Amino acid sequence: MTQTQEQTVSRGDSPFVPIEKIVSLCKRRGFVYPNSEIYGGVSGIYDFGPLGVELRNNIRRYWWWSMVQTNDNVVGIEGAIITHPRVWEASGHVENFVDHLVDCKNCKRRFRVDHLPPENLAQRKCPVCGGELTEPRTFNLMMET
Length: 145
Fold this sequence. Notes:
Elements: H1 3-8, H2 19-28, E1 32-34, E2 46-48, H3 50-69, H4 85-90, H5 93-96, E3 98-103, E4 110-112, H6 118-123, E5 137-140
Antiparallel strand pairs: 1-2, 3-4, 3-5
């Protein structure tokens, strides 16, 4: 079955709806708007419209109620995401939020070391094209501020 045929096949009682159609509907109905769209926008970043804010607040309220208010052993806090770098060091984020990556010198694909088959890593061979892999390097997943 081709990918096009798969898209037209319904999954149980629900028909397949491409994500592009869902995003388009959300934009038309005022759930989300592309961030700074009139100035060219920022890819993948959206602002909530009036309905989007209401939906997000309803989800937040339900999550807060189900995770915090209904459990006696849970308390809620809300802290800043952007904070002093020493806080991230002390919490282990700087040291542990890293991936070890290798690149294929031939096809230019990038792979996480822990996702490679062991034989490919041992032979330093690309699992896609068989090309030579670079030495592993550390990639920090934390956002620079």
